[in-house]
């Protein structure tokens, strides 16, 4: 599979992840899965931003790293730094069993949805998408 270089398709996938995160919150108490989709939303949105500005798809899942790259083009991304460090923990730790399992509460998941929504909306407005 070859990833598309169309940033709008990346944003569409990011929007779908955010929709999934919100729907999951309404249903069963799968807060960890909702938080994971928030991480995915932000990852795809930040990759879309870098793709738009640099023409490359960054080969990383690290939200802080992607955010730093975006901040090279727009310092406002630095405002998301602390929130993205928290959201970043939902990438691996919510998907695999662990001895010290990360417990994601409803409040954590709601906060993750809020962060994902803010980042996605900022990226879309920055790109006039």
From TrEMBL:
InterPro entries: HEPN_dom (IPR007842)
One of the Pfam families matching this protein, by short name: HEPN
Gene3D superfamilies: Nucleotidyltransferases domain 2
Domain HEPN, residue spans: 12-119
Name the UniProt record assigns to this protein: HEPN domain-containing protein
Lineage, broadest ranks: Bacteria, Bacillati, Bacillota, Negativicutes, Selenomonadales
């Amino acid at each position: 599979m070859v990833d598309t270089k169309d940033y709008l398709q990346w944003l569409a996938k990011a929007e779908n992840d955010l929709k999934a995160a919100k729907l999951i919150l309404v249903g069963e108490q799968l807060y960890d899965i909702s938080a994971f989709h928030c991480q995915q939303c932000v990852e795809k949105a930040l990759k879309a931003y870098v793709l738009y500005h640099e023409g490359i798809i960054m080969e990383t899942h690290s939200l802080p790293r992607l955010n730093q790259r975006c901040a090279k083009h727009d310092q406002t991304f630095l405002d998301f730094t602390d929130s993205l460090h928290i959201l970043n923990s939902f990438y691996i730790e919510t998907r695999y069993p662990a001895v010290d399992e990360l417990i994601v509460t409803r409040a954590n998941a709601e906060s993750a949805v809020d962060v994902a929504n803010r980042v996605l909306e900022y990226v879309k407005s920055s790109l006039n998408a």
